Amino acid sequence: METTTLRAGGAAALRVAGPAGTPDGVRAAQAASRPPGWSVGVDVGGTKVLAVLLDADGRVARTHRAPTVAGPDGVLDAVTTAVRSLATAQGLALERLVGVGVGVPGVVDPATGTLEHAVNVGVAHPFALAAAATAVLGGRTVVRVENDLNVAVLGAAHTVPGPDRAGHARDLAFLALGTGVAAGLLLDGQLRRGTHRAAGEVGHLTLVPDGLPCKCGQRGCVEQYASGSALDAAWPSTDGRPAPAVLFEAAAAGDPDAVRVRDRYAWAVGAAVRVLVLTCDVDRVVVGGGVSTVGEPLLRAVRAALDAEAAASPFLASLRLADRVRLAPPGVPVGAVGAALVGRGEVV
Fold first, then answer.
1. Other Cβ atoms within 10 Å of 277 Cβ, number
2. Averaged over 129-133, what is the pLDDT?
């Protein structure tokens, strides 16, 4: 477990919202009414917990990282430990926090702060995470819980510049390429969760009829071709490094098999991008998750796949899909930042 202070001048100097402007994805009225104060955002993943402390002006002051311990008790301890660690390191009493936001995979009821079906963190049955965390923190700290992709898209809206209207994104998707594939959606400045909180589950759309079997019970799902797990299976690492890095390095060196696997992977990711644009017409699709650490080579490959399809379709060409794709900024904890915004109540 460690807590570090972010420095000025780079990702560390990230300013996510200030009193002089309207934050991305948040209504101006909300920004005007936001109480001054500090907030904590905690992004709980399958392997690690990453948390940030935002100051009253919306700047990331400190970060905290720890391994994930599965199960309700493990998640609860991770959240409350992160909050206390950050507050203590900054010399803040918990009462000075305007709120704590938690992003976690699974089905979340944001009204009650209850989590369930979060198999990646070992929470299968309904667990009142917000109430439990509030109690552990002394009962005076407001805790709000949201799905991890929803907090990620909020964080991305604040940290990723747009092609034409930087600082004013109201329609954006965050496409996570990790163990699976899914998206968070910000439409007209508001989170789109869906009637059954399943909006953005593009990983379980059929991409290849009668294709590879998926854990969801279908065959040929996007997830089987565009996830990090798909790359692990298609191009296993032999030296301990992440498979995406090994694959893209081999493709760059001209290995024909690696080029074939890379291009098929980029085509699958491009298909997910196309679905998000054609269904929601978002300004940007921000690609994050573990595979995104490949960086520019991944972005170039996905854009090339989109351009190749646009070359055969004047309709797709007119939508400029490749221009809408962005990478999540390296070193910026977009999920934790979004969770902190949830903690501040800047979500509808």
1. 21
2. 96
Provide the 3-class DSSP secondary structure of residue 307: helix
The answer for residues whose C-beta is within 8 angstroms of residue 247's C-beta and 6 or more apart is 231, 234, 235, 258, 261, 262, 265
* CA pair distance 299, 301, nearest whole angstrom: 5
pLDDT at 166: 44
Q: Model-level pTM? A: 0.84
Torsion of CA 311, 315, 319, 320, to 10 degrees: 10
Residue 109's nearest CA partner among 193, 1, 212, 219 is: 193
Give the tens place of pLDDT for each residue, 242-259. 999 999 999 999 999 999
Instruction: For residue 175, count CB atoms less than 10 angstroms from its CB and return exposed for 0-12, middle for 13-18, buried for 19 or more.
Output: buried
Residue 244, number of CB atoms within 10 A of its CB = 23
Percent helix, strand, coil in the chain (nearest 5)? 40, 20, 35
Percent of the residues in the chain that have a pLDDT greater than 70, as a whole number: 86
Q: Of 40, 68, 52, 46, nearest to 3 (Cα)?
A: 52
Task: Give the pLDDT band (50/70/90) at residue 168.
Answer: low
Please give the DSSP secondary-structure letter assigned to residue 103: E
Tracing tokens 């081999």 back to the chain, one arrives at: 250
Q: Would you say 336 and 103 are in contact if contact means Cβ atoms under 8 Å apart?
A: yes
Using DSSP's 3-state secondary structure scheme, residue 28 falls into: helix
Condensed to tens digits (0 to 9), the pLDDT of residues 7-40 reads 333 333 344 443 323 333 333 334 444 455 899 9
Asked if 21 and 333 touch (Cβ cutoff 8 Å), the reply is no
Instruction: Map tokens 């989170």 to a residue.
Output: 191
Three-state SS letters, 238-282? CCCCCHHHHHHHHHHCCCHHHHHHHHHHHHHHHHHHHHHHHHHCC
